[in-house]
Amino acid sequence: MNVPRSFGRRLHVAMGERGPFCAGIDPHPGLLTAWGLDDDVAGLERFSRTAVEALGDTVALLKPQSAFFERHGSRGVAVLERVIADAKGTGALVLLDVKRGDIGSTMQAYADAYCDPRSPLCADAVTVSPYLGFGSLRPVLDTARAHGNGVFVLALTSNPEGPEVQHARRPDGRTVAATVLDHVRAANAAVLAGDEPLGSVGVVVGATTGGTGEDLAVGGPLLAPGIGAQGATVDDLATVFGAALPQVVPSASREVLGAGPDPQALRDAARRTIDAVRDLLFRASTRA
């Protein structure tokens, strides 16, 4: 039996070759309008496949947001399937942003949909929510690992409602977010004891969260949405992530997609962010 290369290893290579950056594909109605497209399935497909064609050979990760496809019903999901297939064909890794969280057989069904290559919705990695208890994620973690795929677990999100759960204190005084980070660190520990350069279980930490006071070094990648339109700058990453900065994959959607529909303008917008992140990493390494 051939064991597939782990997501962590593939992402490590892609970040080295293309730079640490994730471009979101969010076919928001406002962006469709800005591109001169109708808010229908045809507009959805034109927008999404243009973004893949323009960015797929430039960025390490492409991140379609499933909700913007699902809002168009079964025909929208069919477009998402084509977008995933197209994106994989460009050499970029695909992170499907679905933020699923459930228990038992239902969570296994999500795992089969997003982590098993037999499904047309299978991506290289998927986002999940741990707030039904980290153990509820076991079907996704196990299925992803069996197929060499990755999982990004919500930990410290940038939405204003997040802190009421994530910053809540357990009886031992530690935050709920810290517990999630501990679980992810443990999930990566056994793998990293071998020769893997990066674990395949990452976390989502908003670039707008400021200094969190948490230990963000979990052995896996740190997805940092919020660059650009949501208010964070590349330089803010140093404040949020500190010593864990080399594992960070900043993510932006509107900051890049707003440059469309011209493909070259989309590529240029992505490359500006990649160059800025590389410059930040260089400056951080020279200060170390």
Automatic annotation (TrEMBL):
Domain of life: Bacteria
Pfam family, any one: OMPdecase
Domain Orotidine 5'-phosphate decarboxylase: 20-269
EC number: 4.1.1.23
Catalytic activity: orotidine 5'-phosphate + H(+) = UMP + CO2
Keyword Lyase recorded: yes
BP terms from Gene Ontology: 'de novo' pyrimidine nucleobase biosynthetic process; 'de novo' UMP biosynthetic process
Keywords: Decarboxylase, Lyase, Pyrimidine biosynthesis
The keyword NADP appears for this protein: no
Molecular function GO terms recorded: orotidine-5'-phosphate decarboxylase activity
CDD domains noted in UniProt: OMP_decarboxylase_like (cd04725)
Stored InterPro entries: Aldolase_TIM, OMPdecase_AS, OMPdecase_type-2, OMPdeCOase_dom, RibuloseP-bd_barrel
Annotated catalytic residues: K99 (proton donor)
Metabolic or biological pathway, per its Swiss-Prot or TrEMBL entry: Pyrimidine metabolism; UMP biosynthesis via de novo pathway; UMP from orotate: step 2/2
First-level EC class: lyase
HAMAP family with a match to the protein in the record: OMPdecase_type2
Family, similarity comment: Belongs to the OMP decarboxylase family. Type 2 subfamily.
Name of this chain's protein: Orotidine 5'-phosphate decarboxylase
Gene from which the chain derives: pyrF
